[in-house]
Each structure stands twice: as structure tokens, then as C-alpha cells.
UniProtKB/TrEMBL annotation:
UniProt protein name: Sema domain-containing protein
Database matches in InterPro entries: Semap_dom, Semap_dom_sf, Semaphorin, WD40/YVTN_repeat-like_dom_sf
Keyword Membrane listed: yes
Keyword vocabulary terms for this entry: Membrane, Signal, Transmembrane, Transmembrane helix
Highest taxon, organism lineage: Eukaryota
Signal peptide residues on this chain, from the entry's feature table: 1-26
UniProt-listed PANTHER family: SEMAPHORIN, SEMAPHORIN 5C, ISOFORM A
Sequence intervals crossing the membrane: 152-175
Stored SUPFAM superfamilies: Sema domain (SSF101912)
Domain Sema residues, every copy: 39-193
Amino acid sequence: MCKTKRFIMSIFLCVILMMFFDSSTTTLTTTEFPKEFDFRYTSYQELEQNFNIFQHDDIVGYDVQLTVDNARNQLLVGGRGMLCRLSLDDLRILEITEWQALNDTKRICRFKGQTEDACYNFIRVLLVYEDQVFTCGTNAFSPKCTWRSIRIIHVIIISIIIIIIIIVLVIIIIVKIELIIKYINKFLKILKN
């Protein structure tokens, strides 16, 4: 019974307050808290003063690959036709190297109907393994991968194309050796008879 009385009293009080305050004349004004006093807001100018910024003409849009190499305290960056190593401490450039698609490859890419802007070597893979980095690029829609030295990224350790060629050559040699052994066995059988 007591709860019911409280409920009725609260409804009655709400009705009286609504009648007393006409909603058409009452306005609620809000003022924004000044951003210079709001710790959650940081202006670009403040960021620019307190942080190191790395910019390069071949780092455009979202066509960038980043890999952190904690062991050597560096950041690997792959952009449009370029690879670079930056210091993690201050984004100081340690090394920049170009990895452009060949002009013939670009020409074929455009011939296939791609735009000139799409016919670059956009770096898509940067994987660190021990003291090497595996890098892959679009190479104007003719993908190409290489192993590079992690300390000197302009040095290509071995190209994946070379690996494939070596594997094919080894298979050919093995097949040839098997054929030679087969013919030698036939020749030996003929000599025995």
C-alpha cells in the first residue's frame, strides 16, 4: 500500500511540474566545453610539435606496408616502387631503395587495360625472418618476390624466380639422369645377350 501511494504521489508531482513549466517557453541551452581545456582532444599542430613525421612521395593513400623489426629497432616501409628502413626511435631514414617495375612490364600492364597509376610495383608483403626480409610487390600486375638482407634492403639475396628456375633445372637433371640410367640398363642387357 505504501508503494502505491508513493507512485501516485510521484505521478501527481510530475503533472504539477509539467503544468508549472510550459515546455514552449523553457529552452535548454548547452555550451561546448572549450577544446583547449579538453584533455581528450589533441590538435594536429600539437601532434606535429610532439611527434616525428615521415613523408615520402611514393607513400600514397593506403598502398603502404609496414613491418616492425624489434630485434634491430627499425620500421620497414614498403610503398609505390620503394622500400625503406626507419629508426623506431625517431623515424630517421636508415635506408631507402627503389624497386620499380620495368618499363616493358609497365607497358604490358597498360596494354592489358590497366591505368597508368595502377602499373607500378606496389609493395604488398614484408615478412621478417631472422636476418632476412621476404618482400613481394605487384610489379605492374606481374607479381615478383625477393629475399633481401634486413640490414641492407637494397641487397637482393635471392629472387624467387631464380629459385623456381633452379628447381626446374634440378627436376630436368633428375629426369635426364633417370633416362640415362634407363638407356645404360638397356645397353647392358643387350651386351649380356
